[in-house]
Amino acid sequence: KQEVTQIPAALSVPEGENLVLNCSFTDSAIYNLQWFRQDPGKGLTSLLLIQSSQREQTSGRLNASLDKSSGRSTLYIAASQPGDSATYLCAVKGSTLTFGKGTMLLVSP
Amino acid sequence: EAQVTQNPRYLITVTGKKLTVTCSQNMNHEYMSWYRQDPGLGLRQIYYSMNVEVTDKGDVPEGYKVSRKEKRNFPLILESPSPNQTSLYFCASSLFWASVAYEQYFGPGTRLTVT
Fold first, then answer.
1. What is the pLDDT along chain A (109 residues), one digit of tens a residue?
2. Pick from B42, B103, B109: which is nearest to A99 by CB?
3. Pick from A31, A93, A96: which is nearest to B58 by CB?
4. Which of A3, B11, B25, B80 has its CA 20 to 30 A from that of A32?
């Protein structure tokens, strides 16, 4: 059964810092990996989708990488802003869609 | 606008009173699913549907029913709700399942409280 782990569980940084969120998974037989953002009590906003054959995807200040063989993905956020404060979830699509428990990010002004 | 809609968004009910949470998508997606989100447990899949009239259990199906009679709709039915079903529920859809290219789209969530 696929297991997805996100480290760290929580992260607090000052505005302007570059930061990396980590996601690891146990079964490399995946279709793709998707990063989401969730604001408190709200729905999931899709940030980036990386197909299993891809190494990375970029959208604005966000860059996500995928190393399928080692079961790892990272989400890089450049020049963080207070508006980036949210919980970030990675989801791995294999036989099912399995979520990590998320990294709660707080960016202080 | 392409979207997944859920209704109601908030619901407070009592133990044993049957309820239905509706989910609809306007993207002609074949795959639809339901998740619940609980603190410390993350998002867990309840049921999924690969296409019309095809449904299957996810990780936590006990106490729930679903049906998929039309492509766009995938309602979640709680026949006899209990307090342990208090949770935040999300419906999701995707064009196809067995493809690398298609992302999951999520609805806005339904916060259910069972007293």
1. 899 999 999 999 999 999 999 999 999 999 999 999 999 888 899 999 999 999 999 999 999 999 999 999 999 999 999 999 999 999 999 888 899 999 999 999 9
2. B42
3. A96
4. B25
